[in-house]
Amino acid sequence: MRIKIFQIGVGSFGRYGFEKLVRMSRKFEDVDVEIEAVCDTDFERLEKAEKFAEANGIDIQTFQDPEEMYEEAEKHEKVMIYDSGPTETHPEHVMKSIRHGFFHLAEKPASLTRDQHLEEKRLAENERVMWKTDFIERESPVIKKMTDLVREVDEIRTYRESSVGVEKALEPMKRAGVKGGDVLDKMVHKAYILDFLEKTPGETEMELEKVETDHLMPAKMNSDRLMSIHGGRTENIDEETATAVTQAEFNSSDMKVKMHSSWFGLSQELLMEAKRIEEKTGHRPFERGFSHLEGTAYVDEEARLVVIEGDKNLAGDLLHNKLFDLDTGEEIETEYFMHDQLWRVLEKAILEAVGDKEPEEVEKETDIFMEAIFNIKENIGGDYMEEVEKANDKLKSMVVDDGKLIEAEGSETLAG
User: Fold this and answer.
1) Which domains, and CATH codes, for the chain?
2) Gap between the terminal Cα atoms of the chain
3) Span 244-301, pLDDT tens digits
4) How far is Cα 400 from Cα 16, in angstroms, rounded to an integer?
5) What letters, b where the CB count within 10 A reaches 16 and e where it falls short, cover 111-137?
6) Handedness of CA 315, 316, 317, 320 (dihedral sign)
């Protein structure tokens, strides 16, 4: 069996995936993996990808226009499109793949709106083709071990938080490809929640109880306008407004789900959770320091955490790949895999694309999870000018002048 791979986007994450595919082309069992072409608007990225392929004995075509790449892909039988380009272009590429009958693997959910999601579903059903979304955290050794250990779950709390919104405000052009806001960029990765919902009796469902939006996203630093999920300016607060710090609570049968996401660094809820974990285990489940953009220093923070209460009380730190028993404080050994998460996701996609593996039953799950995400987006509100002012104040609090930076770096300011 043979599969032709056409890749869109070879930026930071895309380059990582491209290197995996190059290695797969030499050592993938049962399937002849051929990387046919890559597409990117940046000529230097294309040149680097071409040289890397050549160093591994592979000749590839390069394109700067996705339309031209799709025209080339039409000439081949079995085609997989690996889309690691900017999020805002995913819906367009998914539609093209569906119309051409290509297998499509996207880095994250393509839909930024409920209407986009419904249209993608409609096309996929009518054309009898499929596309697959990469919820990569479901392949984490930490998540796999947690699902093995837990039989009953009373409550699950997830956190995916970073300072990417600060970076976007400081350098809008360099971060132009980062869009959607914290819910559509961070919280959307938490589809592994569905694996734990299956452990509770009754139908798998996520009934929204409460949404709290601590901050919305300004169009840029000191802006008088908010940002839309598409990256432009908006003068409204609605489902297309980019959020920056969000918490949402759901009920599912007898299980409570609390999801947290942030573009403005670590939330107070995360810091309180982290303190409890550190007191019990001695491990701090986040990273915090200073970074610089264009000579401006800012507080750079990140956390990817999941906490489960049930017949087992566990804390999984996905940022550092560590798992802890919160009853004993001991670290739990996770499974060893020969290849990392991205490799396993690509491997599954290739096998499904050539028809050697039955498609996973993810359609219903995807609907449940994406429905939950869009319900969150449709339940934000607030006074426009107050939210603009509040968002700008939060951004300013995360930017540090040189004098304060020197003082902070020599102290324990960021310890707690």
Assistant:
1) 2-133 (3.40.50.720), 137-338+358-399 (3.30.360.10)
2) 55
3) 999 999 998 788 999 999 999 999 999 999 999 999 999 999 999 999 887 789 999 9
4) 32
5) bbbbebbebbeebbeeeebbbbbbbbb
6) positive
